[in-house]
Amino acid sequence: MIYLDHNATTPIASEVREAMLPYFTDEWGNPSSSYRFGSRLKTVIETAREQVAEMIGASSGEVLFTSCATESNNAAIRAALKSQPQKRHIITSSVEHSSVLACCRTLETEGVHVTYLPIDRDGLLNLADLEAELTNDTAIVSLMWANNETGVLFPVEEIARYCKAQRVLFHCDAVQAVGKIPIDVRKFPVDYLSLTGHKIHAAKGVGALFIRRKSPFSAFVEGGHQERGLRGGTENVPLIVGLGIAAELARKNLPDYDATTRQLRNVLENEILRSIPSAEVNGHKTHRLGNTTNITFRGIESEALLMLLDQEGICASSGSACLAYSDEPSHVVKAMKPDSTASREMIRFSIGVGNTMEEMKTAVRSLQKSVAALRE
Ligand code: PLP
């Protein structure tokens, strides 16, 4: 198998697996218990919190563990609205992950007005559009850092500063940016920032939400006192421990990550463009992650090509894994190129540090063969 879908999920790192194991086996206590067999797990959770905090420049009291980034995104947006009941407007973009878009659509049915900012043909946001849409009624601006389908980066640091100057809360879905580009929440005034474990070699089912000290937040899963009473429910100790280790690895490996994946991605992309007719990249050439390429193969339905690639043992995708069965063309590429069929004919390849140059070459050969077969 050649796995080129790291924006969908990543393999669990061996260090993460090793760190989690004792908490699946011998250390099965409840952190809320008064005896040490349980209560000592509190320390373990706090260590993981510090590790996650350090990865993004936060203090540990600003990190809340959740079950996934979908939960983090929903919680941040709803908390901002709840804390400002007089404000009924949200600004987001048309290319956010479904966890933000679906939440916003539900909020629309609850009387909240949502502005979905457009993007240009390169997938970039025009800050003037944001400035034009912001009103006294805007409760929160929610924008992603790196797009999961194209890797295109939004200037979230600049956006955070603008929102702060306008006294509007800012939430950033940083799921695809974490571990791939430097993130330091001390350097820009983001109020909330979401991340998830399974994109950085931790397990599925654990995420986190950064909540800046003094940014409004209230309990959203009501129950026990866990997570400072903000999210009740017995903590998922093994997965939290794993997220902590994954965060530490991501922080240490960050300098190498970009160089390694960018080189592989560039070879894959350049070879595809050079050797396969009518292939074009979706997304800005430089304002994007080093590990992602999104390519339209003209005249070829994404799903047909993905099936042939699967037969060749190559894992890639036609957009977000969360929408894989929706049969809809990519909403991201559609927003970029509404006048073309590019959104139905695109494949996303996302590289990981475990990939090799040999795999890139094999993948290109399989693509050449599959595209030729479908164009016959
Ligand atoms: N946001 C982005 C940009 C994503 O790519 C994903 C996962 O695909 C999510 C949010 C949701 O993450 P999770 O699977 O942890 O809910």
The total tally of domains equals: 2
Distance between the ends: 26 Å
* Widest sheet, order of strands: 2-8-7-6-5-3-4
CATH class of the largest domain: Alpha Beta
How is the biggest beta sheet arranged? 7 strands, mixed
Shape: globular
CATH architecture assignment of the largest domain: 3-Layer(aba) Sandwich
Hetero groups in this structure are: pyridoxal-5'-phosphate
Helical fraction: 25-40%
Which strand-content bin applies to the residues?
5-15%
**Secondary-structure element order, as H and E?**
EHHEHEHEHEHEEEHEEHEHEH
In CATH, the homologous superfamily of the largest domain goes by the name: Type I PLP-dependent aspartate aminotransferase-like (Major domain)
Give me the oligomer status.
single chain
Name the average pLDDT: 96
What do we call the CATH topology of the largest domain?
A: Aspartate Aminotransferase, domain 2
What does the radius of gyration come to?
A: 21 Å
What's the count of strands?
12
In short:
The protein has 376 residues and is an alpha/beta fold.
Can you put this structure into words, describing what you see?
With 376 residues, the chain is of the alpha/beta class. It folds into two domains: 2-8 and 254-375, Aspartate Aminotransferase, domain 1; 14-250, 3-Layer(aba) Sandwich (Aspartate Aminotransferase, domain 2), CATH 3.40.640.10. The chain contains ten helices and twelve strands. The chain has helices at residues 14-24, 36-56, 69-83, 98-109, 127-133, 156-165, 237-275, 302-311, 331-336, 357-375; strands at 2-3, 63-66, 89-93, 113-117, 138-144, 169-173, 192-196, 207-211, 279-281, 292-297, 314-315, 346-350. A seven-stranded mixed beta sheet has the order 2-8-7-6-5-3-4, sandwiched between helices. The protein has a three-stranded antiparallel beta sheet with strand order 9-10-12. Helix 7 crosses helix 10 (357-375). Residues 68-70, 97, 99, 144, 148, 173, 175-176, 196, 207, 320-322 line the site of pyridoxal-5'-phosphate.
